Amino acid sequence: MVWQFSLGVVPLFAATLVATAVAIAVFRKRDAPGGRALGVIAVAAGWWSLLAGVELFRTDLFTSVVLTKATYFGIAVVPVAWVVFVLAYTGRRAWLSRSRLVLLGVVPVITMLAAITNEPYGIHSLFWQDLGFMTDGSGTAGSSQYGPLFWLHAAYSYSLLAVGSYLLVELVVNADLLYRAQAGVLLMAVVAPWSANALYLANVIQTPYDPTILGIVLSCLLLLMTVYRHRFLEIVPAARQLARTELIKTLDDPVVVIDDERHVVDLNPAAVDVFAAERMDVIGRGLSAVSPKLADWLDSDRAEQTISYEVDNVDRYYDIQVTPLSQKAVADSGLLLALRDVTARQHNRQQVSVLNRLLRHNLSNTVTTIHGNAEYAAERARDDEVRERLAVIEDNAAAMMDKQEKLDRVLRTFERDSYTCKSLDTLLKAVVDDVRTAYPDAKLTVDMPETTMSFDGQERLRIALEELLTNAIEHDPSDAPAVRVTATVEDRQATIVVTDSGPGIPAYELEPITNGQETQLSHGSGVGLWLVSWIAHSLQGSLDIETGDDGTAITLTIMSEE
């Protein structure tokens, strides 16, 4: 065995030292996602560069062959360790089952066995067809013509490197700044050696040793910098990715992810139950094929937020929340559809609706009976005091019937009032005309500019305006109540002010409105103002009341639909 010194060993031994430093640094963080795989890469790179450096010291064929073959114990491992590292680092460790790891290791084992048993000093030429020497000023190293098993190893290695690089590119595009910095350095670390390797295999670069090793020097330096500068292996995206995945998997609410062409790309177990299909049978299919009802809802104006599905022979109701999915470099990447189970709420609404209708019907019948009997008794009563008391009962029953009728009208309006009035001034003038007809002694003044402002809920607004005007007239004790209506329109907002000169509104009447509810200690004597306030809020507006001994000004504000 003949040894000779060459300057070419300097970068190779430097690569060994740097790889050793990286291996030590990574060993301290080996429990982090991808830590062990990265340690394997560092050790394999150190082994590769060390043997390549030793190879430059010798000049005999036997030592060259032994060292060259031995380097493949490191070379063959690097691509597999790389893809294992990236999968774990990006939160895809669940993919790394034992059977898949065994499959990943098949080609590296074939590569090692093929290199060891190849000629010279072997039994075949499937890996190298000719292994000889190549010499330049930097030293002497083995040169070769490659066989089919080598190209199998090369194709497999580049495929794994491409998969890992793609996952890192995806992370760079979508991740936060810290993770993008880490992933960017990792990409540079893999591009440097393997671009050099590709140029070497294509004979673009001709050197006495594989320049991939020099790229590894740079890669190891980049990894070492990342460990200490970007908190590499301390904060990794795997935890965030796993948290998101587990959160969606364990949600009781169905979650469906579709791409920009409305193909189902993912769904959680709850969604599988709703669609009554196997998960893998759903993924990749169009949403219209998986759930026509949900696809039709997406195509609609989405005014109705609730849809129903039959799950385990039971009708269940879901509110749908749509969240656009976007990437920093790609627009319209898809949608996340979250279906919130509101079956209990829907059933409660139905039960309350039935109970409400039942109570209103029974109350109406009861009050009608009271009114009729009071009227009958008053006509036949001989005592004046009895007649007076029966008249009070009759008046109160009539008032209750009026309130019941008004409430029924409002509730029916809320159920069907969805069309739009195109002229606010026309509606207001029509309401004023109706009130003038009902109260001919009242003096109503209207000040409103012509407008074509449109808004939702015409019937609700009509009820609110009628309530404000009739209340102002009925609570004014004068013979000719004066009520002024002033309306202004600015941008998308209409403001209607109803002013009267009556005695003002008592505090106990205002308290239920300001509190939003009636309490046991403060019952409003009427539902009028509370009803107007309710309607105002349903129209995305507001109600403001200013009252005193000299009168009341009530301001109703509504928003245009435009």
TrEMBL record:
Alphabetical list of CDD domains matching this protein: HATPase_RsbW-like
InterPro entries, A to Z: BphY/WalK/GraS-like, HATPase_C_sf, HATPase_dom, His_kinase_dom, HisKA_7TM, PAS, PAS-like_dom_sf, PAS_4
Domain PAS, first and last residues per copy: 240-285
Predominant place of localization: membrane
Keyword Nucleotide-binding assigned: yes
Membrane topology: Multi-pass membrane protein
PROSITE patterns: HIS_KIN, PAS
Listed EC numbers: 2.7.13.3
Catalyzed reactions: ATP + protein L-histidine = ADP + protein N-phospho-L-histidine
Domain Histidine kinase positions: 358-562
Cellular compartment(s): Membrane
GO cellular component: membrane
UniProtKB keywords: ATP-binding, Kinase, Membrane, Nucleotide-binding, Transferase, Transmembrane, Transmembrane helix, Two-component regulatory system
Any one of the GO BP annotations: osmosensory signaling via phosphorelay pathway
SMART domains per record: HATPase_c
Transmembrane segments: 6-26, 38-58, 70-89, 101-118, 150-173, 185-205, 211-228
Molecular-function annotations in GO: ATP binding; phosphorelay response regulator activity; protein histidine kinase activity; protein kinase activator activity
Name used for this protein in its record: histidine kinase
Species this protein is from: Halorhabdus utahensis (strain DSM 12940 / JCM 11049 / AX-2)
